[in-house]
Amino acid sequence: MHKILVVDDDNDMCLLLTRFLTRNGYVVVSANSGQAAIEWMKKNKPDLVLCDFRLDDMTGVELLRKIKEIHPRSAVIIITGYSDVKDAVEVMKLGAYDYVTKPLFPDEILLTIKKALATEPKESIAAKPSSGVPDIADHKSKNSYGNNYITGDSPEFATIVKQIDLVAPTNFSVIIYGESGSGKEEIAQQIHHKSKRAGKPFVAIDCGALSKELAGSELFGHEKGAFTGALNQKTGSLEIANEGTVFLDEIGNLSYDIQVSLLRVVQERKIRRIGGNKDIDIDIRFIIASNEKLWDAARAGKFREDLYHRFNEFSIEVPSLRERKQDIMLFARHFLKLTNAELGKDVKGFSKEVEDVLKSYIWYGNLRELKNVIKRATLLTDGDLVDVKSLPFEINNFYKLQFDAHQSPNIVKTDNQPPNTNGNTQMPFENKLKTANLDAEYEVILDALKQSNFNKSKAAKLLNVDRKTLYNKMRQFKEFNMD
């Protein structure tokens, strides 16, 4: 579970946030002063810090600087009872993920926290890897772009690097196409870091996570009293990103009304907060991402064609991981290195069998799926090398799961059970019944996995069971020599 540090000199606010976040599945620690927070962080590492802007012993800016010195990868959200654009811009430049005003609304703060924890932090790869793992730092000259970006060896990514170099110095809007988890946001960050706006805010917004009700407020901000519950003025993400870059991920999920408002922003470079009557000039660069072709979405009436043409000044297509298999082990070793550092382990590398499995798998979730698999496998590994027992069921048995569901999986057949003259396996009747039940369950679960592209959460929903039950069934198959 993610660990959150709440820093506020108001005991009631600390207690309120602690109870709320604990109920939502987080481990929460609170501190009533900046110094107390610093002392705690010297011995512990939070995934996220919720910090009041005005503390008794220091400002939120001072504490933010300390947090980034001690734990640069920890996300920070600044909370304040005062809304000031200059303060918001300052803390964003110093590395805060977001800046929110009191009073806090449960749905809004929870959404902000989830987005902050889901955002990939910057990670330096310059440190020397453990013995047995190819030296990624030495590989940096041809495999990294900027300070933190691993591109891979494939010619497809060499093309992308050239495109980044070409478009970054311009002020063109860029559309990045690619499957979920393929690294679109990382490419957007590299365009920003190589542009004239480097050093200015880079604000990433997951349009798929914005509800219709919150989207307008999140993007454009709102004035006090603009709607029920708007007790304070809120600065929108576009305003915070002024002079910098805005990355709109999965833009096709925005509602028609928000697309209309966004079109005006792109055309006139002006925004108006919800409930406001004053235009605010902004200077921002737009980079957007989509997992579907926006031109096709526009022709189907799901996306405004005029907005598409405004954004379509330059486009980059990110290949899926299965289209660049030669990059798989490079990324796997990189993720292993990061996970070793995170878990305090020293796993040296992967067995030959694991490498073969990783290279042959389809990787529906691309780099995101690969990273999660490596993290899990590293956690489960006790020796020097990751072995196949540490890999998830659907990856370790991928090709077995591709067989026609109408074929018998022979779940319980072993070398000690020779077939009889009728071609049937010799076993007691009670075992035959158990085998028949497992065969039937296997068929149903296999169909559900195929329909959900082997996403276990979706498969569990299709089967009307929870994930734990599905995992237990999968383990049961393993016990009967599925491996």
Brief account:
With 483 residues, this protein is of the alpha/beta class.
List the helices and strands and how they pair.
Elements: E1 3-7, H1 11-23, E2 27-31, H2 34-41, E3 48-52, H3 60-70, E4 75-80, H4 85-93, E5 98-101, H5 106-118, H6 140-143, E6 144-145, E7 149-150, H7 155-167, E8 174-177, H8 184-193, E9 202-206, H9 212-220, E10 221-222, E11 234-235, H10 237-240, E12 245-249, H11 256-268, E13 270-271, E14 280-281, E15 285-290, H12 294-299, H13 305-311, E16 314-317, H14 328-343, E17 349-350, H15 352-360, H16 366-380, E18 385-386, H17 393-396, H18 398-401, H19 429-451, H20 456-463, H21 467-479
Parallel strand pairs: 1-2, 1-3, 3-4, 4-5, 8-15, 8-16, 9-12, 12-15, 17-18
Antiparallel strand pairs: 6-7, 10-11, 13-14
Strand content: 5-15%
Give me the CATH fold name of the largest domain. Rossmann fold
CATH superfamily of the largest domain: P-loop containing nucleotide triphosphate hydrolases
In percent, how helical is the residue content?
A: 40-55%
Number of helices: 21
Q: Helix/strand-derived class?
A: alpha/beta
Overall tally of structural domains: 3
Q: Sketch the major β-sheet.
A: 5 strands, parallel
Tell the overall outline.
globular
**CATH-derived architecture of the largest domain:** 3-Layer(aba) Sandwich
**CATH class designation of the largest domain:** Alpha Beta
Number of strands: 18
Strand order of the largest sheet: 2-1-3-4-5
| Rg | 25 Å
Q: Catalogue the unreliable spans.
A: 122-148, 403-432
Mean pLDDT: 79
**End-to-end Cα distance:** 30 Å
